[in-house]
Amino acid sequence: MRRLLIVFTSLVLLAVPAFAGQAPAGQSGFVPVDSLPPSEQLPAAPLLISAYAFVWIAVIVYLFTIWRRLNKVEADMRSLANKIQR
Amino acid sequence: MKAFGPVAVLAGLMLAASPFMIAGAPYESTMGLVQKIFYFHVPSWFAMFTAIAICGVASIIHLFKNSPRMDRIAEAAAEIAVLFGLMGLVTGPLWGRKAWGVWWQWDAKLTIALLLELTFISGILVRKYGGPGSDKLAAAVGIFGLAVVPFVYEAVNIWRTIHPLTSVVPTLPAPMAGPFWFCVTAFMLLMAALLMLRVNLGKRQAALDELYLALED
Q1: Which residues of chain A make contact with B205, given a CB cutoff of 8 A?
Q2: Cα–Cα distance between B196 and B190 in angstroms, integer?
Q3: How far A7 CA sits from the closest chain B CA (Å)?
Q4: Residues A36-83: pLDDT tens digits?
Q5: How does pLDDT run along chain B (217 residues), one tens digit per residue?
Q6: CB B40 to CB A52 under 8 A?
Q7: Phi first, then psi: what are they for B27, rounded to 5°?
Q8: Which of A37, A69, B85, B215 has the fewest Cβ atoms within 10 angstroms?
Q9: Rounded CA gap, B77 and B82, in Å?
Q10: Residue A9 in this model has a pLDDT that exceeds 90
Q11: In this structure, what are the phi and psi dihedrals at residue B51, rounded to the nearest 5 degrees?
Q12: B186: how many CB neighbours lie within 10 A of its CB?
């Protein structure tokens, strides 16, 4: 009885790693990407275009702020220069 | 300011040409099209780190030699660093959403990068609302920011993170490396042109302050 138990335990211990190392079951069928729920579909192009657009917009907005600040400084300088001349 | 024209024109031409260069680069095997954000994302961080280096060095000189010129350069470079940091922080999540499935992950690399951006925003706020002596405080913030840069860069090698490693850039295959370094050059030139423009603005503001003082006297 004891020998039988040892043999059975050995078989279980040997079989567990063997089953654990089995490759996952094969894919039973193909699913077209447009059949996935909307939450799992994510096209790359809008993300790519958004990234590039943001870079361009950030540069343009920053240039605009510099231009506006420079114009304000120049206007202040002109009005001060006029005051000093008077 | 003499160099501004050629640098700005070259930067503009290179940035206009960059989408064509990027379109010609091969697709990455696992990420596909979205990986092409890399060609603007990484150069924006390179430009930010360069602006921070300029800000940090100018801040050190200003702290020890009290140089108004260096203070203007540090102020301009801090603003430019925030601009390029913002580009990196926006383009990164757009890439991550597709590549990782999440917009943001609070891992070491991303969190330190965000803190670096906030550090330079705080430097700008200190200058604006700090009152007398705020230039020295902002210089100290700039030096602190410079000290943080190596941690942002090396975070992926020090801590476990989902962000790609720093080994990606040196091991880029030639068809990807060409467009990448082209974009890096374009961003560096853009950073230099914006810096010159912003320093000039600081110079004009300093001249205006002198005029105000002359009027008071």
Answers
A1: 69, 73
A2: 10
A3: 44
A4: 666 556 788 889 999 999 999 999 999 999 999 999 999 998 888 888
A5: 778 888 989 999 999 999 999 988 888 888 888 889 999 999 999 999 999 999 999 999 999 999 999 999 999 999 999 999 999 999 999 999 888 888 998 989 999 999 999 999 999 999 999 888 899 999 999 999 999 999 999 998 888 888 888 888 888 889 999 999 999 999 999 999 999 999 999 999 999 988 888 777 7
A6: yes
A7: -75, 145
A8: A37
A9: 9
A10: no
A11: -60, -40
A12: 24
Q: Which residue has the tokens 């068809």?
A: B175
C-alpha distances out from residue B11 to A5, B16, B186, B199, Å: 79, 8, 5, 18
Q: Choose, out of A48, A50, A71, A77, the residue to mutate when testing the contact with B (most B CBs < 10 Å).
A: A48
The pTM assigned to this predicted structure is 0.83
The token duo for A80 is 């001060």
Angle between helices B68-99 and B134-158 (to 10 degrees): 30
Residue B176 CB burial class (10 angstroms; 0-12, 13-18, ≥19): buried
Contact B120, B82 (CB under 8 A): yes
Return phi, psi of residue B32, to 5°. 65, -135
User: Which of these, B206, B208, B163, lies nearest to B76 by C-alpha position?
Assistant: B206
Cα B173 to Cα B181: distance, rounded to the nearest angstrom = 12
Q: Under an 8 A CB cutoff, do B198 and A74 touch?
A: no
The owner of tokens 């996952």 is A24
Report chain A's C-alpha Rg in angstroms. Answer: 36
Q: Hey, what are B74's tokens?
A: 């540090």
For helices B174-216 and A45-85, give the axis angle rounded to 10 degrees: 20
Contacts with B172 (C-beta within 8 Å, 6 or more apart), sequence order: B180
